[in-house]
Amino acid sequence: MTVDIHGNPKGPHGGYARATMWLVKKTHTPHRPIRVEDDLWEEFGRLAGERNRSAILRDFIAWYVRRRGAVLPKRPVPTEDEPSKS
Question: In the chain, pLDDT over 90 holds for what percent of residues?
Answer without folding.
Answer: 45
